[in-house]
């Protein structure tokens, strides 16, 4: 006896699973299988080389830092967009999605052109001895660029839902503006901030197109992990090495997904973050 | 003829929504299913509409197995609590929906559909608003559109889920009367679900009181109100309040007063529960005769005085309803003497089920005497 | 400063230290957005037009570039409808039924957002590549997936998988199943319920999801890069063409990139318009 009253259960789940299976599940299984086949020793032989470790350090280190910067900048931008009315606010709001919608390769060459030693900004930084393009700073910049919309778009609806009432309540209770922000708003924004942080982090770790142009891909210096994966596949046909490294990246993605799920569950007690 | 519901069970995880429900609804009857939220009344409605399937049990209409028919072929009109009007369709299109989605061979001609829709909208007094969208209507108008939409498919059973739940108090009272008349003119077998006692008692031919997945009582509004079968019905419908009482060989003792109660002392019951209704707690005309109590608070509501009383010797305060003239003299904090005019006694077996009940009336306030009538219920 | 302060006005009457703080905050935000977002955008068009309009037009009329445009449109024309159907099917399943593994299904739908596109491409090679799980079977049947159109489509579907579903699921969850049930009791069949009741109520959210899905499909680089083999004129999509030109002909690369940037701007414009005109019907977004 079926409990499913509305029609279309088989059709909808069937198609969903067919697409998920061929595009996500099967490839996922293949990656895990290949990585498991290597065994711990074989895996370490692939991942434990100086070049790979350097790339992982850079990918994760820069991504962590970039996501942190995104949270600070994103909080500022979201706050200003939600709370204040000023000229070009709507344009600014629309622009926030740019890194999300702009093809990453296009963003990559644009950033490189700007920060190259002969670029608009790069040329002005040369006298100061600051090198952005073809350095780790460039990697960081590209990651900040791609992660920003995630933080802003996660914070915006939460900030909008916190109408003035809470702050006015705190105000009537005698809280100063800084106290109102730190003691009332920030705790309520925390789940959204964490979610935005995790989203920006996931994107930054996996980012390829925006980063590889500005990074210059210098051995041991500015090679990111996705770049190495491409190198292994493209020029060395080393699928096992690529899979070993890919497994590390995938594990990081899954961990972040779990962390986000935990944050969402935790935040539900306030029901501020959907 | 009519609908036969037999031994219906529905469980969600460990929550039992319907616990072995059996019921008969006669042709053309207007039945209210009354109960607090979580009592299973909406589950019953959804199963009848075909939107849910029971774990076991059967539903038959004139000998035909209703559960074997899926919702779209069942010919049951359902008016949703929040109406579920299609927001992108006009009033007329909403009403016509059920006719337009019929299989091609059974679909009436456009002109026939239009005539039917016009007729229905005239009957629900909305013919002026046919071209409006649901968002442009008031709550009461939306409800009537939902009703017309459900009636368009000429259902043999009409179900209404909390038909007045989403309306303002004023609109509600007017619509009740209208719907009652409307049902009379249609004569279609109808069942509506509500948690509002007044609504159920005022409108229905018969009331089914539900609690925790079980039917507590089925009866006319009169029966349910005046002769509640269980403590739950007494509390829920007549605002019965428990008072401490004990039954001995031939009497009921409540707070020192003795009431005659013959034939009740029996081995069938394990415990008794004694209820008094607010309107049966009267202030004693001669001070000193009756139960001493302190007035905790007095509220005047529409000609009635609601008094909260702390009767000496009781933990819980009691609520009394006096007519305005009577209650007007009292103020909070004052000491008063009250008497119980009538009591209902329930005998409960070891599982807490009612196995005996009796109504005690005292015509003479000065000397409480108990007269029957009482009756035993089958356990 | 005074000009900006004058343009900032919100409800009440800010006292001067607060209005100063507002002005400073707004200026900082404008600075961040200008520096981080506007400058790169300007740089693309500036670099593209630097050698002159004639060169620009010439660059985007190269046969290889036109082939890349055609391929990009083809890939999007296959991947976007696939994802549209996927989004509808997944949302219908997730919002109208209870079944085991539903939470897992929801997590899987979101997964492609957090997996690196490069890893996605690599996984596809492990399955569909010459030495992959299905490689020999596919070869025996004369089907080439990797380094060909099917691979590009698969990679694109992977990275854009959540877009439509993520717009629809929260919306349909918020709307509940009541209207579908109402239609059912009125005698409508499955397709009638879908086309007459569900679809009209989610059409703008659907369009919104398709729009974002399309932008990503046409602009995807990492995943496509891995599976395409970048054969010029054959398996180069526009972003891959940008990459190859960048090594050889800087200005031409920017000319092609400016096409993609224009697509982005148009997408963002339509997105804004949708949010502005149909904001209420998109509720449940993000």
Polypeptide structure, described:
The complex is a heterotrimer of chains A (274), B (379) and C (286). Chain A has 274 residues and is an all-alpha fold. Chain A has one domain: MetI-like fold (Orthogonal Bundle). Chain A is built from 12 helices and no strands. Chain A is globular and about 65 Å long. The two termini of chain A are 35 Å apart. The mean pLDDT of chain A is 89. Chain B folds into 2 domains: 3-227, Rossmann fold; 239-376, Beta Barrel (OB fold (Dihydrolipoamide Acetyltransferase, E2P)). The longest helix of chain B has 18 residues, at 169-186. Chain B is of the alpha+beta class and 379 residues long. Residues 363-379 of chain B have low confidence and may be disordered. Chain B has helices at residues 41-49, 91-100, 110-123, 139-152, 169-186, 197-203, 221-226, 231-238, 324-327; strands at residues 3-12, 15-25, 30-34, 56-61, 64-65, 76-79, 157-161, 190-194, 206-211, 214-219, 241-243, 245-247, 251-254, 257-260, 271-276, 281-283, 291-301, 304-311, 318-323, 335-340, 342-348, 354-361, 374-376. Chain C has 2 domains: 1-49; 52-282, MetI-like fold, CATH 1.10.3720. In chain C, 78% of the residues lie in helices and 0% in strands. Chain C is globular. The two termini of chain C are 35 Å apart. Chains in contact: A-B, A-C, B-C. The interface between A and C is large, with 94 and 104 residues. Chain C: Keywords: Membrane, Sulfate transport, Transmembrane, Transmembrane helix, Transport. Chain C: The complex is composed of two ATP-binding proteins (CysA), two transmembrane proteins (CysT and CysW) and a solute-binding protein (CysP). Chain C: InterPro entries: CysW_permease, MetI-like, MetI-like_sf, Sulph_transpt2. Chain C: Part of the ABC transporter complex CysAWTP (TC 3.A.1.6.1) involved in sulfate/thiosulfate import. Probably responsible for the translocation of the substrate across the membrane.
